[in-house]
Amino acid sequence: MTSSDDDGYVHDPTAFNGPDDRGAETETAEADSDGEWTDAPRHPATAEREFDWRGWILVGAIVLAFVVAPLSILLWPPHLNYFVALLILPLLPAALLALTAVWATTRP
């Protein structure tokens, strides 16, 4: 059975001209990048990864999300609105933890 007998898709590499066949959009993006990171990449061990003030802020957000928020839900007075206790109290620390984690792990 040959590829001409197939009614389905058959990949033909000769149908593509190669890297020059790409659109102008990718060529512009490639021309804008300097490519230095591929010429001499840094080893991960040489990167500055210290536990500084950003790490302590992240630890504070973890404590807030995993200790303070559940305790506040547990101690929420029953005569007050449960919408706040069951939706807002877990949501705000979780969102704060997510934003803080992204901020703390992104180096300038």
Description:
The protein is 55% helix and 0% strand. The protein is mostly helical and 108 residues long. It has one domain. Helix 3 (53-74) runs antiparallel to helix 4.
Throw out a few tags for this protein.
108 residues, mainly alpha, 0% strand
Q: Which bin fits the share of residues in helices? A: 40-55%
- Globular, elongated, flat, extended or rod-shaped: what is the shape? flat
Q: Element order, helices and strands? A: HHHH
How far apart the termini lie comes to 58 Å
Q: What structural category characterises the helix and strand content?
A: mainly alpha
Give average pLDDT, whole number: 77
Number of helical regions:
4
Low-pLDDT runs of 5+ residues are 23-29
In terms of DSSP E residues, the strand content is under 5%
Q: What's the domain count?
A: 1
Q: Specify the biggest β-sheet.
A: none
What is the number of beta strands? 0
Compute the gyration radius: what is it?
27 Å
Keywords: Membrane, Transmembrane, Transmembrane helix
Region (Disordered): 1-44
Biased composition (Acidic residues): 27-37
Transmembrane segments: 56-76, 82-104
Short structural description:
The chain has one domain. Helices cover 55% and strands 0% of the residues.
